[in-house]
Structure formats: structure tokens, C-alpha cells
């Protein structure tokens, strides 16, 4: 079986690859709205960075179950997925987890208008793909949605490795990015835009966001679409999401403009909450740490 070659852990051996006598005990099969865990079929480069969190479910006996839509967005939809080993105690780490699956749509309804400025300086390698994406053919849209999923997954991996507060990226498969679900149970954490906080809490939230922006800038990066809608607040901690357009401040000629816009978006919201802050000052501080 081809996917066995990508396994990097003996625990990954799928039950459906078990020897014949063992198969007699294997009665669980995915039902409606379910599939075998897609983890075993991904290659190492399609998996999130080490160290892997203890809650990750890597067993190939696991089944993915669709729990519903978290939110439909401009470019894709976010679904809630349960990944669990049937009949294993769910409270033991590695047996059960709820994940967010962001699936890029790429139909005419999806909004890739922003792609041109973000991809400047990035470069698509295959000219056939470049032309197809530019013309917006159905093949071009299919290429684009895989590219955006890959771009978001890679950005999540890079930022996780830098220690920035983003959901842990579990894996990418074609147009689907599976990542840590930020929330409690099946309820997603609120976006910053929905949060009402005391002045002291606001100051703390603002400092966390500034810290996030500093880590990125010090590594030559900006979020590129930062706003109170792309920041989740979970138990007092800010987690940044929606990262396919992460901008390289060195190679992208529009990089500083996008960083400036991020500063304005963040400071405008905090100013409306009556927290004193200055977008120009923040921008200046961040430009000073870009290497
Ligand atoms: N990892 C996650 N954990 C919990 N909720 C999430 C997660 N990722 C996304 N969401 C929810 O799904 C929404 C849409 O996600 P995201 O912003 O990444 O997609 P989008 O296509 O850009 O959507 P939009 O057009 O609303 O910005 C978020 O606002 C958030 O409510
Ligand atoms: Mg968003």
C-alpha cells in the first residue's frame, strides 16, 4: 500500500493493514460523515512541526467524524472534526481530539482578489499554473486553492516554530488544513471583535498582539490581514488565525504597507475601546526590529 511508506511511527500502522487473524476483530468502519483518519496518508512534510503536542491523534485506527460548520468564510469554510480511536478511553491523550478543518473553496464565489499583492515576491514556479491562476480557469482555481492551503499550513508551521501564538498545524491534505481547534468543547473561542473587556484586560490583550507582531517583524514577517476578526481570545490568551497571506517584509515591495495596515487595524479597534495606542508609533517600533 502506498501510504505505508510515509509512516514514521509504528503506532501509525493502520488496522485495515493488519494480518488476517487480527482482521477478525476489526469491526469498526467509518460511517456517514466519517472517514479513516487522514494522518497516515500524509507525508512528513505535510505534518506539523516537532515537538508534536501530546493531544495529537496519530493512530491509524482513528476515525474522523464531521461535527459541523464552525464558520463559512470568504475563501473557505471552517469545520469541526473529531479524530478519535474507536473504543479507546477518550480522556487519554492521543485517543481523542477535536480539530478545526479549514477547507479552501476556490469556486467563483471565493475571493482571491487579494492574492496579487500578497504573492508578489513569492513566485509560482510552473508557468502553466501561473497562467491558469491569472486567467481564473477552473484548473487555475483548483491550483489556487491548493496553493492557499499550502501557504496557510506553511505559515502556521513557521510561526509555531517561532513560538508565535497560532493554532498548532496538524496536517495539510490538498485543500484542507487541519489545525488545533481554539475553543472549549465544541464552542469556538470568540474573535477579539466580540470581546468586551476591562481596561486592564484590554491593555493585556493589546500587549499580547504587539508581542505577536514583534516576533513576526523580527523574523521579517507580517500577518498581512490582521484585524479583530482574525484574532481569537481563548481564556485570556490571544491566538492569531487566517494566515495564508503572511507577508515577507524583505522580498515583498508592498510589505511595509501591509504591516502599516495591520498596525492601523489593530490600533483603531483598541482606540474605539478607549485604550490609548498609536498605530504610527507601533509601526515605527516594528520597522526598527525588521532584520
Ligand atoms: N483554529 C480555529 N479554532 C477555532 N475557530 C477557528 C479556527 N480557525 C478559524 N476559526 C473560526 O472560523 C472563522 C473563519 O476562519 P478564517 O478567518 O481562518 O477564514 P476566512 O476564510 O478568512 O474567513 P473570513 O472571511 O471570515 O475571514 C474564524 O473567524 C473563527 O471564528
Ligand atoms: Mg478571517
UniProtKB/TrEMBL annotation:
It catalyses: L-threonyl-[protein] + ATP = O-phospho-L-threonyl-[protein] + ADP + H(+); L-seryl-[protein] + ATP = O-phospho-L-seryl-[protein] + ADP + H(+). It is an enzyme of class 2 (transferase). Keywords: ATP-binding, Kinase, Magnesium, Metal-binding, Nucleotide-binding, Serine/threonine-protein kinase, Transferase. Its EC number is 2.7.11.1. It holds the Pfam family RIO1. Residues 35-45 have a biased composition (Polar residues). The keyword Cell membrane does not apply. Residues 29-52 are annotated as: Disordered. Residues 64-291 form the Protein kinase domain. InterPro entries: Kinase-like_dom_sf, Prot_kinase_dom, RIO-type_Ser/Thr_kinase, RIO_dom, RIO_kinase. It comes from the Bacteria. PANTHER family: SERINE/THREONINE-PROTEIN KINASE RIO1. Belongs to the protein kinase superfamily. RIO-type Ser/Thr kinase family. This is non-specific serine/threonine protein kinase. The lineage of its organism: Bacteria, Bacillati, Actinomycetota, Actinomycetes, Micrococcales.
